[in-house]
Design a protein that fits this description.
single chain; mainly beta; outer membrane lipoprotein receptor (LolB), chain A; twelve-stranded mixed sheet; two-stranded antiparallel ribbon; 7% helix; disordered N terminus
């Protein structure tokens, strides 16, 4: 009997799932929404942007800030009062290492010229998954929503094409990589701007060389030096 062999051809997008690579994010903060004084608003640009990247492979991810743009500040004209506002968060002071299998988190930080490594567990946000979809950088994404412990409403878009629960800042733990986050209705927005398929083993190493400290003890030290965080959990340094 003659046999017929059938070959099933699938679209390439269905086989494009990956567990390693690099994602670059742009962070955009609406500074004016955090200011009440109209004169202060006139002294700073409305939006502040920064770039971050996450390296990931299987259960390991390392998140950090990218070098800052050294372009001149358009508000630094040496005329009148000049106000600079810097918003800091995870990854701004060194790498944040996450092991999703063990739920281990190690975060580099420097305080009063001393280097620390904060030992913690990966926080789990109470995400609610939605059937809504969007396309970001050519990847089909699904919508998820949550509320942070400080009461901030968050909308995230994640893709099953990247089967690692990574994301920018604290926003991860979903069934795929987060490619966009909108926190506080535009107050804080992370958007993936590039995705690369390669990652080097040296980029996935645990941080070392600092004093190991718990999250609670480090927070106490920061409060002593800089004062308490704002309502969004971020600290603002004014020069």
């Amino acid at each position: 009997m003659k046999k017929t062999v059938l070959f099933l051809l699938l679209p390439l997008g269905l086989s494009a799932q990956t567990r390693q690579g690099t994602i670059v994010y742009e962070r955009k903060i609406d500074v004016h929404r955090r200011l009440q004084d109209e004169q202060m608003k006139a002294m700073v640009p409305q939006f502040q942007t920064a770039a971050y990247e996450v390296f990931f492979k299987d259960s390991i991810a390392v998140y950090k800030a990218m070098p800052k743009d050294e372009a001149p500040d358009p508000f630094d004209n040496n005329a009148g009062t000049h106000l600079v506002m810097r918003f800091t968060g995870p990854g701004d002071d060194g790498v944040v290492y996450r092991n999703y299998n063990s739920s281990r988190l190690l975060e580099e930080a420097t305080l009063a010229e001393k280097k620390y490594i904060i030992a913690d567990t990966i926080p789990q946000l109470p995400w609610k998954l939605s059937a809504d979809t969007a396309t970001i950088l050519g990847h089909l994404c699904k919508k998820a929503t949550t509320t942070t412990p400080r009461g901030t409403n968050v909308v995230a878009w994640y893709t099953g094409d990247i089967l690692v629960p990574v994301g920018p800042d604290q926003f991860g733990g979903l069934p795929g990589a987060v490619l966009k986050v909108d926190a506080d209705a535009g107050g804080l927005v992370f958007t993936a701007t590039a995705i690369q398929g390669d990652v080097e083993s040296r980029q996935l190493k645990e941080p070392a060389g600092g004093r190991l400290i718990s999250r609670a003890d480090y927070t106490k030290k920061v409060d002593e030096v800089l004062g308490p965080a704002d309502a969004q959990g971020r600290r603002i340094i004014r020069n």
